[in-house]
Amino acid sequence: MTQAPMTQAPMTHVRPLRSTATGAIRGGIRVPGDKSISHRSLMLGAVAVGETVIHGLLEGEDVLHTAAAMRLLGAEAERNDEGVWRVRGVGLGALAEPAQVLDMGNSGTAARLLIGLVAGHPITCVFTGDASLNKRPMARVTKPLEEMGARFVGRSGGRLPLTVVGSGELVPITYRLPVASAQVKSAILLAGLNTAGATTVIEAEPTRDHTELMLRHFGATVTTERLADGALAVTVIGQPELTGRTIHVPADPSSAAFPVVAALLRPGSDLLLNDVGMNPRRTGLYDTLVEMGADIAFENRRDQAGEPVADLRVRHSALKGIVVPADRAPSMIDEYPVLAAAAACAEGTTVMLGLKELRVKESDRLAMVAEGLTRCGVSVEVGADDSLTVHGTGKPPKGGATVATAMDHRIAMSFLVLGMATEQPVSVDDGAFIDTSFPGFVGLMNGLGAAIVEA
Ligand code: S3P
Q1: Where are the beta strands (DSSP E) in 16-123?
Q2: 430 in ligand 1 pocket by Cβ < 6 Å?
Q3: Is it true that domain 35-247 has CATH number 3.65.10.10?
Q4: What's the pLDDT tens digit per position in 235-282?
């Protein structure tokens, strides 16, 4: 079946869900493809010459918005009957001016990376998103892109809806990231792609490097250099020949986190997760869970098209509270909500430091997690330094509450996982946004032994 071109955000209906504790989590699964890698494969495939074949693309709504946008920019991006995606690229510098608004739905990654890519093209594009995305800060990308010569008309803070006036004659810059953000780094590198000369991004803390790895895979020259102060300088040489490639998208470690934590919390569990991406810039949650006492075996480690992967064997474990250092945040930035659910069931106090960036995700995740846990009878504190302290007792939290999700897929999934381990069921007010990153989540979890139902 061929995917119909999609130009509008799909209609989402409110979908309250309830999760009740059941038996063990057992079985073997592969969670859907990595969201970060899926977005990048469509974008780079669209500016390469020739065909890019993508196996295991995440078919969540966020990525489908990227596919739709790449079509509006002139590329072909279709799914064939076997679920393999083929992208026919237009070549670097040749993206077409879209005749319609680019609707990026709920996805900050799609919006920020694509704003960077089109900024380096002589076209004008209008970006918008849903109510969550249109609240999120975009000045973090528009500021450096303006320094390169692109122009923007947006709302305050550069927020969407935003018009990008791109240019084929940007000037390369060297930019030190003020926040640890792979999205900002990637936006600048993608703008530098069609810019003559060397564009450099300096990051004090290493963030996920999928853009760098994939740019190399498509034929670009990307170098990294450790500076005297320990920061990393990442440089892309502009105007390379990009050639269509084959890509195998690993299973998303950020999605795997939900069944992993569920298996750790449920007595008798024994779960196998195949092909999970193990890029070291993404595995902070796994390091943290192991420090808490989790029994996770990383089997069959191998490389898959430039990205490390492994099969994970997870067994029920008694977890203990720990301190999670701030410098680990970039490698587990999306995993704090589900870690907080694990910490609520652990014995002792877990302190998570350096969570400021959680405030500007799909929701204010720091506030949403604290509020939801409190409703479920868990004792938590949010520090003035944007830390989160969760006091676990080693016994099941009370639960028995409905938690607000604020259009945030990971808040919804995290509290459904918590509900698998609480005395009374936990409900979420809306699970519809789970489809942005983890289509089929409810069926897959129930197939492993969970009891998640429409509320
Ligand atoms: C992403 C980077 C992270 C992460 C997001 C995906 C990416 O955002 O939260 O889900 O694919 O580059 P920041 O880099 O802004 O922290």
Answers
A1: 17-20, 26-29, 49-55, 76-79, 85-90, 102-103
A2: no
A3: yes
A4: 999 999 999 999 999 999 999 999 999 999 999 999 999 999 999 999
430 is catalytic: no
User: What pLDDT does 173 receive?
Assistant: 98
Query: What's the sign of the alpha-carbon dihedral 358, 363, 367, 368?
Result: negative
Rounded to the nearest whole angstrom, what is the distance from the C-alpha of residue 81 to the centroid of ligand 1?
31
Output the pTM of the full model: 0.97
Contact 107 CB / ligand 1 (< 6 Å): no
422 C-alpha to ligand 1 centroid (Å): 30
**List of E strands, 121-221:** 124-128, 151-153, 162-165, 174-176, 198-203
Tell me: domain 2-33+250-454, CATH 3.65.10.10, correct? Answer: yes
Alpha carbon 298 to chain centroid distance? Answer: 22
For a mutational test of ligand 1's pocket, the pick from 181, 335, 338, i.e. the residue with the most ligand atoms closer than 8 A to its C-beta, is 181
Q: Where in the chain is the domain with CATH 3.65.10.10?
A: 2-33+250-454, 35-247
